[in-house]
Amino acid sequence: MFGDLQGMMGKLKETQQKIEETKKRLDTVFVEGSANQGKIKITVSANRVVKNIAIDSGLLEDKEELEDYLIIAMNDALKKANTINDAELAAAAKDGMPNIPGLDMFK
């Protein structure tokens, strides 16, 4: 019994390490959200950290319009980043989970 427990604990430790490695890798995966036919572009990492904002100078005249488009572009970028982040971390967790009865939710 304790051999199985040690094996499971080792497997859980490996899974945690895979998850941490995946998080580091996701810092280097970038997605772009845009609005107004690409006049505003926001680049974020898959870990949801804003890396760049590019704004067409023609949008600088109307503050409210600019704010609206920034929100649209930011939400677009974050949605894409969330999708990648969730899929990658779920895959890392699933691959490393030991076969523990009752924890089928990861399979």
TrEMBL record:
<dbReference type="GO" id="GO:0005829">
    <property type="term" value="C:cytosol"/>
</dbReference>
<dbReference type="InterPro" id="IPR004401">
    <property type="entry name" value="YbaB/EbfC"/>
</dbReference>
<keyword id="KW-0175">Coiled coil</keyword>
<dbReference type="GO" id="GO:0003677">
    <property type="term" value="F:DNA binding"/>
</dbReference>
<comment type="function">
    <text>Binds to DNA and alters its conformation. May be involved in regulation of gene expression, nucleoid organization and DNA protection.</text>
</comment>
<comment type="similarity">
    <text>Belongs to the YbaB/EbfC family.</text>
</comment>
<dbReference type="Pfam" id="PF02575">
    <property type="entry name" value="YbaB_DNA_bd"/>
</dbReference>
<keyword id="KW-0963">Cytoplasm</keyword>
<dbReference type="GO" id="GO:0043590">
    <property type="term" value="C:bacterial nucleoid"/>
</dbReference>
<keyword id="KW-0238">DNA-binding</keyword>
<dbReference type="InterPro" id="IPR036894">
    <property type="entry name" value="YbaB-like_sf"/>
</dbReference>
<feature type="coiled-coil region">
    <location>
        <begin position="5"/>
        <end position="32"/>
    </location>
</feature>
<protein>
    <recommendedName>
        <fullName>Nucleoid-associated protein FF125_05185</fullName>
    </recommendedName>
</protein>
<comment type="subunit">
    <text>Homodimer.</text>
</comment>
